[in-house]
Amino acid sequence: MILTFLYMVATSIQSRRILFLKNHLRSLFQGDTTSYPSIMFYNKTLASNKESNSPINDCENDEFMTSCLCINKSDARLEELLWYYDDMRLCTIFPQQKVDISSWLMYQYGKTFFPLHINNRNGTLLQSEYKLYILVEADLESYNPVAATHATKVEDYGLIITWTANKNVDLIIESDLDMVAKFFIAAMEGQCYINNGLLLKRIETVLISGKPCLYNSDVLNLPPTKKFIDKDEWRMHMEKLKSLSDTAKLASEKCKPFEVKDLPGLIIYPENAVTSADIELMKRVESNETLESECRSQVSTPVSTTTIPQCEDQLSQDEIQKITEGTTKFQGVPHSASKSLDMLDNLEDVSSSISTRQVSCSDIKSTSKPFEPKTFYDAKNIKRTSSASPFKNSMAEITTKLSKKNVKPPNVLIYADSFIARNNVKNVLEESLGTDKYTIYVLSPEEARNDAWIENAALVVVCGNVGNEIGNQIVEYILRGGKLLALCSDVIHILLPSFKTAEVRENELVHFSYGKWKHVRMMHHIFCYQASPVRTRFSQDHEDIKVSSVSPPASVSVKDKKGNSHSFDLKVLGTEETWHTPSILLATLPESGGKLVFSQIHLEVDPMQYELEESKFNALKESNATRLEIFNDLLKAHLQMEIRSSSQKAAPATYTPAFFLGRHELKVQLLERLKDRMKGGDTLKMPKLEIQFCKSSTVPRPASISFLPIMVYQCPDNFSTVEYFENLTTKELGRLVIYAEIMTSSMDIFNGHQLEHGLAVIVRQQTQGQGRGKNIWLSPKGSALFTLQLHVPTDTILGRRISILQHLVSVAIVSAFKSLPGYEDIDLRLKWPNDIYAGDNVKIGGMIITTYVMSNLNICNVGVGINLFNKEPTCCINDIVTAFNEMYQKKLKMISHEQYFAIVFNEIERWLNIVQSGNVDVFLDAYYAYWMHTDTNVTILSTSGLSQNAKILGIDDFGYLRVRGEDGTIFTVHPDGNTFDCLKGLIAPKFK
Fold first, then answer.
1. Which Gene Ontology cellular-component terms appear in the entry (predicted)?
2. Which of 100, 516, 615, 744 is deepest in the core (most CB within 10 A)?
3. What pLDDT, in 10s, does the model give residues 132-164?
4. Residues 377 and 432 placed together within one structural domain of the fold
C-alpha cells in the first residue's frame, strides 16, 4: 500500500511538472514568430570533464550558450533561466537559433542500426499544433554499453529527420510541445544517456533551413545488429560516421556527388546535384523500408526560417489510420506519388525544386543502382508486413521439417562415355528411383567440367571413361559429401589410386557374389581393377584354378586440388569368384560423409543388348531380376537413395481426353477463328501433339502421348468449374480453359501456334514436364500446373521489355497467395530468374516462358508449376499452411486447385495492367520486396574464362541481373544456361 501511494504521488508530481513546463512553453510561442526564443537543455558535465583533462577551442568554450552548429550562434543571448541543478540547466535563448542542414545526411528509416541503434517506432501521433524541431547532441566519445540498458530513446520523442557527426553525433528531430516537454523532463531527472549509451549534451529547439544530403546506404557494412558492441567496434563505427559527415560537407560545398573515401561505392548526393531519377530512386529506398515504423505517416512539412512549424498538408486521421494499418491502396498511381511515404517531398518538395542534369559515366555507378526494399507486400492493397515478422523466423523450421533433407528437387546426374551406356543407366535409374521424387539429368562434358552441379546433386552415376579434368571435379564432389556410383569407370584411378589394371578378354561373363546374392552370372568390365599384383587376364571358364588375390588396403589416400590428403575407408562388398578380385567396392570419406560405390560389373546393362548372342542373352536374362535387386540395394543401403517400392511403380501413363471450359460464345468464337487452320475443321497439328476439338457428335480415337481429344461440351468430374469461375475476376485471362487429367506437357498445346490471348491449359499430371533450359520439371500428383498464352503488343511498355514478363508472373503468384486473408505471413520469396521459394531455401515452384514474335505481337506461353498438394519432391503450400496453423494456432483454409488457378490469373492480369499503364515502379517495388538476393555475391565468368566476384544490386530494364564488380564497376549479366543453379556462375555480356 505504501509503495502504491508513493507511486501515485510520484506520478502526480511528474504529470504536474510536464503540464507546467508544457504550458510555459506554449506561452513562449505566442505572438510574432520573430520573437520566439530557443529552449535549451544543456548538460555541462562533459565540458567540465574536458576542461580538466584536455584543452578546448573557443567554440567549445561558448557551447553552454548554444550549439556550434547554429548559424546565428554569435547572436545568442541568455534570456531566462528556467531550471538548473549541478551542471545541468534549462533556459531560453534569444534570438531563435537556426541550423542549416544542407551538409547533413538524411536519416534513413529501416536502417535501425545506423547511425545509432533506433527502434524505429513512435506510438503517439504528432500534434499538428506547435510542431517543433529539436537539435539533440550527444558526445561520441562517451560511449558506455552498460548505460545503454537504461538509456532514453530519442525516437520516443519524435521523428528523426537528419543527422551529422564530428566530435558529437547531432540529430534533428521533428516533435511537438507535448513530446518536447517530456524529453526535457526526462533529461532534468537525470536520464542523460541516450541510444547506444551516449551521454546527452544538449536538447535545443531550432529552426532549420536547407535540405540534407542523400546516400546509397546499401553498400554500408552496418555495425552488429545489437545495442551493445565493444568499444573497438564502436570506435570503428565512429570513424564511419565521421567519414560520411565529412564527405557530406564536401559534397554540399562543391555541389556535386562524392564517393566516401574509405567506403567504395558509397556516394553522397547534395540536394542541389540530385536528378529527378536520383530522387525517385532514394524515395523508393526510403518509403519501402519505412512503414515498418508507424511514425513515417506522421511526417509534416518542416518549419521555414520565418514561420512556426505547421503542417500545411496534414493527412486526415482516417488516412493515417489506413497507412498505419498497412491498407492504403496505390490506386494505379506511381509509388513515388504516395505523399504519406515521401520524406523528400515533405522536406519542401525537393523533387520539384531540383533541375535535371546530364549523367556522366562516373555517375552511372551510383545513380542506376536499383532500390532494395526489405518489406513484404500484399497483393490487392500492397500491404507492408515488417520483415521482422515473428512468423518469419520459424518459417525455416517449418520448411526444413516438411522437406526433410530436400530443399530442392534432388538431382541425379549421369555422365557416360557412350550413347548406349547413358540410356542404359538412365533406364535403370528411372526404374529404381521413379520420376516423382528425383530429377534425372545427363551431363555433357562441358557441364561436367563446370562446378555448378556439385552442390545440387544427390547422386552422380558415371559409366566408362571420364578423364582427369572431369575426374578431378568428381573428387571435389565426393570431398564435399557427395555420393557416387561408378560403373566400370576409370574414375577409380583418381579416387582409388592404389588400384592397378589388368587386361581381360572383352565381354567376359563372370560369377560373383554380393550380400545374399550368390553365384550371379553377369558381364564384367573389360579391365579388372585391383590393388596388386597386376593380373594379365581372367581365368577361362574351363580352367579350374583358384588364385587368391592380395587383399585390398583398408584405406586409401586422395589429394584434392590444393594438394591436401584425404583418407578414404575401403571395404569390399562383392567378389569375383574365380580370381577373387573385388567386383564391388565401397569407399567412405568420414570427414564429409562422401561415398563411392565402384562396380566392375555392368549392373546397368539390359540383357536385350545381347539378344543376338544367345548364350550371353540367356544367362543375363536369367539373372536380370537379381541385377536390379543388387542395383537397388547399392543405391539404398550404401548411397542413401530412396527406392520406390513395387507398389509405387506406376503402370504406364493412361492418357485421357481434355475438356474445353468457358462461356459457350467464347468457345465458339475461338473455334471459328481457328477453323481455317484446322484439318477437317476440328484438328490442329502441333510439332509434338495433335489435338482434336470434339463436339457432341464426334467419336474421338483414344488419347495418347501424341494425340489429345478435347471435349467441347462436356465437363470434368474432378475439377469444379463453379468454384473456379466464382473466384475468377479477370476480363480475359483464364476465361477459356483446356483442362486435362494427364498429358505430356501443357506447353505442347501451344507449341508454334497463336491461339488466344488468355487461353489457359490446366493439367493435373504431366509425363514430360518442361523446365528452364533442358531442365526436367517433376509433375507429381497434387502439383498445380498450367500454361497461359499471352499476346503482348511489341509497341507497349511491356512489349519493349518482354523479358521481364517472367518476373511479373513470379510477383503475381506470390501476391496471389498473399491476397488471401491470413496468408500475408506465409514467407514466400522469389529466386532470380524464375523460381518460387518458401523461406530461404525450399523450392516450391518455377516457370518457363517461350516467346516468339508474330507481326506486332509477342506470343508468350507461360508455363508454371507449383507444389500445392504434393509432398514430394520437397514440400507443398498446403503442408506449410497446416504446419503454420499448428504452430501459431491459426485457422487458414487449404487452397484448392480451382481457387489457386483463379487467383493467380487474377493477379497476372492485374500486374499486366499496372505495368502497361506505366506504373513499372509499383511492380518493381513488389518484386524487390519478395526477392531473396539483396547483397548476394555471385561469380561472374567472362567470355575469356576469367572470373570475379560481384554483388547483386538488382535487375535492369530487361530483367537481367545488375551487379557491382570487385573494382566497383556496375554492369549487367545473364545466366549461362546451366541447368543446376543459374546464380552459381554467370557470364557477363560484352556491353557494360
1. cytoplasm
2. 744
3. 899 999 998 888 877 766 788 898 888 899 999
4. no
